[in-house]
Amino acid sequence: MWLGMSLLFVLLRAFPCICYPIGRDQATYCYIGQRLLEGKRLYLDLWDNKPPGIFYFYALIVKIFGTAMWSVGVVDILWLLVISYFIFRFTERFLGTAAAVTAVVFHATWRAWMGYWDAAQPENFLVLFVIVAYFLSSYAGRRRWVCDALSGFLFGAAFWLKYNAVTFIPLLLLIPYLDFAPLDAGSRLPRFTVSGEEWIRRVGVWAAAFALAVAGVLAYFWWVGAWPAMREIQFEVLPRYNAMAAERYRPYWLYVYNLMSVNLGPWTLILALAAIIVARRTRTLVQTMPVFLATAMGTLCTAMQTRLPTYAFETCYPFFAMLWGYMGVKVFEGFRFVARRCWGRGWRVAAVMVWLIFANLIYLPLPNEAVQLKLYFYDLKEWWQDRDAFYANYPWARPISHYDGQIRVIEYLRENSTPKDGVFIWGSEPLIYFLAQRNPPTRFVSNLGLLSLWTPPAWRLELMRDLQASPPKYMIVEREDWVPMISFNFLDSEEYLQQRFPALSRFVTDRYQKVADFKAFVIYRHD
Q1: CA angle, corner 218, sides to 217 and 222, nearest 5?
Q2: Per the confidence metrics, is the pTM higher than 0.85?
Q3: DSSP H or E run through 212
Q4: Is the CATH number 3.40.50 carried by domain 403-525?
Q5: Domain ranges of the chain
Q6: What percentage of the chain has pLDDT greater than the value 90?
Q7: Which long-range contacts (CB under 8 A, 24 or more apart) does 181-184 make?
Q8: Listed range (138-142, 227-231, 321-325, 381-385) with the worst mean pLDDT
Q9: Given CB 3.0 to 4.6 Å as the disulfide criterion, which of 152, 334, 416, 421 pairs with 210?
Q10: Which residues lie below 8 Å from residue 325, measured CB to CB, with a gap of 6+?
């Protein structure tokens, strides 16, 4: 009953997310996923610097939903329902039903505040796969080896979503086999619940399945001829990008702590420390230690990304929500203890005051939640009445999204071009390619791989060869699309074109005429 009520709350809280627009990252995944369905090869024919898993996952999404703008919102709702189920089961296993309900409610509310930028990102699916893999690894019934193999395969999928998933390996290979009761008895170490031989056998099955999942993907890219491009992007350029980020954000540990405080909130960090103290004082480490360790792994998984956008914290949100559930129950028990002591001594007014204070603590976040929920359902009403107008004037858009300009460009291309006409966007908004169903004559679907400080100059030469070999009919230049956290320069696309890329600038001015200007997007046509 409590699980059903929790999931019903999640559905009601998350349902307005259906009107999310497709963000820049998700648009890249959608467009590349669609081209993969057409037979194109990742990295060789379609450039991006993320691991391959998310693009094939989005290929399935595009296969199901097509080019619907609301597809990402629907996927985010479904994901939230599924992960809420596993958050409930995970928390209930160690902390009890009341903490599980609180954790689900807290996590769903937390996620609803994040908005469209965090929806259906690789980190979302990574943490879901990890939690499901944990339940498979902890299965103790018959045919355990099947569950171990499935857990290894699923963790392989998580690895190909984000390589830093490796921080969760102890959650799958150690925690299911450990008894933490000795910690409450004063011992420093937990004890194994299985023999060493059985543990080695189960871990061997898991490791073999994981290795097969990793090797299978590498073999696929070698088989289709995309291995050299994958090796360059994933194992040469990507490490340089990460190293540059670590060098720029010094001291790195202070940078990570600052962003943790911003994205998790200082109260969450204080609460995590308080939870450890309470667990030791109440001798409940046998229940809480798996949650503490999972939280630490999720936090380490986040910190390893060097660049920490808001969605990077999706790998630890569920586990911090579990700690909120645990402390919420402990705070309630503390108030109940004080109220009973007051009542037992005849201090009835004091007992009532204790519960009034507790009620005020519960009430404290409700006004903001009610206002936000009202605004979201108002957005849902506007979206239902006129979706195109709603997306063009999306009230929660980030400044670099420029949805009004994107939609006007898409409408212009639909009216004035055909799918056979080449289109190239000097910018970072593949949503135009995806919704207009137009393709560039190059693998660079975003210019982040061309104007960033960590990209090799040979890629810009490659772009010029592609454009000269197959000049597109339309060139679109974007303005006000700064992303210095990724590119490490503070020029927008138009400024970079004029100041740092003379070859492409001459190509545009010599061959093209300006035909439209939509503030953040300038359209040029080649006659």
Answers
A1: 115
A2: yes
A3: helix 196-223
A4: yes
A5: 2-244, 333-381, 403-525
A6: 68
A7: 181/286, 183/285, 183/286, 183/289, 184/283, 184/284, 184/285, 184/286
A8: 138-142
A9: 152
A10: 91, 95, 98, 99, 100, 101, 102, 103, 104, 106
